[in-house]
Design a protein that fits this description.
heterodimer; A: 405 residues; alpha+beta; MetI-like fold; 3 domains; nine-stranded antiparallel beta sheet; two-stranded antiparallel sheet; B: 4 domains; three-stranded antiparallel beta sheet; 71% helix; 4% strand
């Protein structure tokens, strides 16, 4: 009885893990695809069927050839060998001896000419079909053969033993490949789209916005939580009411404000308007009201002023709320796109943030997924690394926004 | 005055100084009254200023004069209100002059030159964080106070040192060197700077304890002043960059503003154009639109047949209605697609088996990534010939074929066909939002007391009954929050479409034109900003209505378990 209960439990858990893993795969796959593609050779990105890992075709140097030659697998005397492609697009005819139609011969068309000339070629019937007759020269002998069909093959040579030579279809041949990584995609995309400058701009904007928001939110939150002044409650309700107003309502007047004070196309427009956050003030206020009043009153009697109380007592006690606000603001500032798109000119690459650079890159490198996805990785990876390091804070900030809010 | 004589040695000099400050304050405020009145007069006479600028500055200057006058009156009566008003006026004046000076000295616009050199300072910026982190590692030396102190000091020293090097590296000194030349350039800078100094001095003087004693300032007074002081940066920024634009936005929506030239007030014309529809009966279902609609004004939006009578709907702004339809489609599909799987996953994650935190972390991953980056990745996943999504479909169909179910590979051209492009965007958006919603649902689930499930089990409820009768009702507030925020987000969909659709964001036959995309095209590509603002307000009202409906449903459903 107990054993069957356990068996049910195990299968149930197994199913749970299975479903969770399948979903996890779908969640991670686009990021894996991004990372691996960002290390691919340009040619490798357009393969079908697609392959996740970046590979490159191996090449070899051979005497008498300036360029390195690509290696393919080929069968020589029943044995698989790595062969170099020395010549491609050799026109080949498939011939048979009309007297003995069972044996097909593949011989270069260059050494053959139609019997009776091109215009009036002699015909012969092979297997019930009328086909032209060619005079084919091979190893010093000329034969009369019937041409069944034509194809183009590549000439492959064993690099270690150039006398070993076979002809086979290049497209159907399996190239010799090995896993590779092309980090130059990253340097290329940095050079192409000034991504280093956009990265440092993004860091600058993010750092300033995070610190600015923390400062104003902590000060305002403390005032709302602990200091009594006329109009406090009405103001707080007003703050709360504005949290749900979408940014698109503000975007045109904000743009006109930027035009008026001359901040269009300036980094200041990405920073200064964003360091005042009703949500952040609300968050800090909610946290500060949970701190016991007695500690504060004791400090006041000891002659501490309000700023000292805030810095020495409230801030050290509010790490969770500060971390929540930091993660939120960080992600918002790092990932924002609509406002930079509106306010920074496309031509002014020096003031681009990463999201804007990606937008331009999408158009400029539209046929190089390896470059585009390297750019996307530059924008996506820093928050992701910080997320992996401070996972707890991100997830907690998400939940605190929902359950308590 | 009696309180001031407690300390006989110190009292006379500080009292003298306080009296001096009061005399200075009286003169200063008298000056402000005159300056405010004169300034208001000059502004009113100004020829080339817009009416709204006249109004704003006039009111500000008159207010300055009025409050200053009242302050002088109360100061002379030694009323605490006089000090408060004086502090308020001087502090606001100080902030205004400070911001003005910074503006004059190009300190805001100068952030651009900081961006030029910022990369050089990055290593030292990182070092500051390292120092701060090091200084916080005191709990490793539990009980060893001296060692804790040392750790804190070392951390702080590293941070400060790195900070100083950082300032040098980004060229702050060079920046400061430009200040004197800016001072010589124009008299405005000098005026702003000296105003900053005077206002600042007066604030400092009136703030002093001896001055406060003269006015017999109470604790409540001090708390109030502190309250306004602490809130002020936040509140001013909020007013300038939020409340102000909010009101301005409504005004702009009543004008034909193009952001640069002086706008004309046109009343409700923008809204009228948005909502202008025309319904006409048709003689036959395939009658030409031009025969019944005034085609100089209306474009055909739709036609339909009820009770054998065909009708045609014409719209003055057909694109708005297309955008609205697409946005609603997006909301109706993307919200369930990102909420229902999230609820399902959260229930799985809530079971008491190990490894759940790992899965939770993975599901949350898309939420931290930039939408722009994600859309670029999905653009290639959706590629019709080499993309993984079509490859996956092909694999599945091959599987079906091998087990004897003949299916043909649809070979969907996701992003280049009108009937799949929006769906492609919906799938991508849902994929990105699932993780965040899962985490929210999980937190809600963990707030439901175990005891309730135990009671349900004792009563013989099956797991399915438990889900419908216990979990779902108690999850009401969380569901409300998740659905509402997702709807709000979905109504404003823009970035996903803008990036993934490439050079033609509106998509094949406008199939991915969303409201915000339309707003962007109107307001920032054709610069019809008045019209764009009107669209924004319509969108806001829609969001508001959707939220209200949600709220009402949540209230009437009567689920009210609060932890």
């Amino acid at each position: 009885m107990i054993r069957s209960y356990k068996a049910i439990q195990y299968t149930r858990n197994g199913l749970v893990y299975l479903v969770l893993t399948v979903f996890a795969f779908f969640m991670i796959f686009p990021f894996l695809y991004m990372l691996t593609t960002s290390f691919k050779e340009p040619k490798d990105t357009f393969r079908y069927p697609p392959r996740l890992l970046p590979r490159e075709t191996l090449t070899t140097e051979m005497p008498g050839f300036d360029e390195p030659l690509p290696l393919y697998y080929g069968e020589v005397n029943g044995e698989q060998r790595e062969l170099a492609l020395v010549e491609s697009n050799i026109r080949i005819g498939v011939f048979v001896d009309p007297a003995n139609p069972g044996v097909e011969l593949q011989l270069p068309l260059d050494n053959a000419e139609p019997k009776g000339g091109f215009t009036n070629t002699e015909q012969v019937v092979v297997n019930g079909e009328e086909v032209p007759v060619y005079l084919v020269t091979s190893e010093g002998q000329t034969q009369e053969l019937a041409l069944l069909s034509q194809t183009a093959l590549g000439r492959f040579v064993d690099p270690n033993d150039p006398s070993v030579e076979i002809l086979q279809n290049v497209r159907l041949s399996q190239p010799v490949e090995e896993l590779t990584a092309r980090p130059e995609n990253y340097t290329d995309v940095i050079e192409l789209q000034n991504m280093d400058r956009s990265l440092s701009n993004t860091i600058l904007v993010t750092v300033l916005v995070v610190f600015g928001t923390l400062t104003t939110s902590v000060l305002g939150g403390y005032a709302f939580a602990r200091l009594n002044f006329p109009g406090r409650n009405n103001l707080f309700v007003f703050y709360l009411g504005t949290i749900m107003i979408p940014f698109v309502v503000l975007v045109t007047p904000m743009y006109q404000l930027m035009v008026t004070i001359g901040w269009v196309d300036k980094v200041a427009s990405l920073v200064i308007p964003w360091i005042f956050s009703a949500y952040g003030t609300f968050l800090m206020r909610q946290f500060f009201i949970t701190i016991p009043k007695e500690i504060e009153e004791a400090a006041l009697i000891d002659g501490a002023n309000r700023l000292q109380i805030l810095m020495r007592i409230f801030l050290p006690a509010s790490t969770p709320a500060l971390a929540t606000l930091t993660t939120f603001t960080f992600l918002y500032a790092w990932n924002s796109f609509f406002w930079p798109l509106v306010v920074i000119n496309t031509g002014n690459v020096d003031n681009h943030v990463l999201t804007l650079s990606l937008n331009v890159l999408r158009g400029r490198a539209s046929d190089s997924p390896n470059l585009i996805l390297a750019g996307a990785a530059i924008a996506i990876l820093p928050p992701m690394i910080i997320y992996i390091l401070g996972q707890r804070f991100f997830v907690e900030s998400a939940t605190s926004s929902g359950v308590k809010g | 005055m009696t309180t001031a004589t407690v300390d006989p040695q110190k009292a006379p000099s500080s009292e003298d100084r306080a009296a001096l400050w009061l005399r200075l304050a009286t003169i200063w405020h008298a000056f402000l009254v005159v300056a405010g009145l004169a300034g208001a007069f000059i502004v009113w006479q100004g020829a080339d200023t817009a009416v709204w600028q006249k109004a704003v500055f006039g009111v500000l200057l008159l207010g300055l004069a009025g409050v200053s006058g009242t302050a002088v009156f109360h100061i002379n009566q030694r009323r605490s209100r006089g000090r408060n008003l004086s502090l308020a006026v001087n502090y606001l004046g100080f902030l205004f002059a400070l911001v003005g000076s910074m503006h004059q000295l190009n300190m805001f616009v100068g952030l651009d030159s900081l961006a030029d050199t910022f990369a050089r300072g990055l290593p030292f910026l990182a070092l500051i964080f390292v120092g701060l982190w090091l200084g916080s590692q005191t709990e490793r030396f539990e009980g060893d106070l001296i060692r804790q102190q040392q750790v804190r000091q070392v951390g702080r020293a590293i941070a400060i040192l790195a900070g100083i090097i950082f300032l040098f590296a980004v060229g702050l000194l060079d920046g400061l060197a430009t200040v004197p030349s800016a001072l010589l350039e124009g008299w405005e800078t000098a005026v702003f700077l000296s105003a900053t100094v005077f206002f600042g001095l007066m604030v400092w003087g009136m703030w002093q304890q001896p001055v406060a004693d003269i006015f017999r300032a109470t604790n409540a007074d001090s708390e109030m002043l502190n309250g306004y002081l602490f809130l002020s940066p936040n509140l001013l920024g909020f007013l300038i960059f939020f409340a102000g634009p909010l009101i301005l936005s409504l005004y702009v929506s009543f004008t034909d503003s193009d952001a640069f030239s002086t706008p004309n007030f046109i009343g409700l014309e923008n809204y009228a154009e948005i909502f202008n529809l025309d319904l006409e009966p048709l003689a036959s279902a395939d009658q030409l639109a031009s025969e019944v609609l005034d085609v100089t004004q209306y474009d055909e939006l739709n036609r339909f047949t009820i009770f054998g009578q065909s009708y045609i709907i014409g719209a003055q702004d057909r694109l708005f209605w297309t955008a609205l339809g697409n946005t609603l489609q997006f909301v109706l599909l993307a919200v369930p697609l990102s909420v229902i799987p999230a609820l399902f996953l959260a229930n799985l994650l809530n079971s008491k088996v190990p490894g759940m935190r790992f899965f939770r972390a993975i599901y949350f991953l898309p939420s931290v990534a930039a939408v722009v980056g994600i859309a670029l990745v999905w653009q290639w996943l959706y590629n019709a010939t080499i993309g993984y999504i079509n490859y996956g479909i092909t694999l599945v169909i091959d599987l079906f074929n091998t087990i004897g179910l003949p299916l043909t590979d649809p070979q969907i051209r996701w992003l280049s066909e009108g009937n799949t492009a929006l769906l492609a965007v919906i799938i991508m958006a849902a994929w990105q939002w699932i993780g965040f919603n899962t985490v929210l649902f999980l937190a809600g689930l963990q707030n439901i007391p175990r005891a309730l499930y135990e009671a349900a089990t004792v009563d013989g409820a099956t797991p399915r009954q438990q889900f419908w009768k216990v979990t779902l009702p108690l999850l009401g507030p969380t569901t409300f929050f998740v659905v509402t925020t997702t709807v709000i987000q979905a109504m404003q969909v823009f970035e996903q479409v803008f990036i993934i659709m490439g050079t033609n964001p509106a998509g094949p036959s406008n199939s991915t034109l969303t409201i915000v995309l339309y707003l962007y095209q109107k307001g920032f590509q054709r610069f019809e900003q008045g019209y764009a603002s009107a669209i924004a307000w319509v969108l806001f009202l829609l969001i508001f209505a959707a939220t209200l409906v949600q709220f009402q449903r949540q209230r009437t459903s009567g689920s009210s378990y609060e932890s």
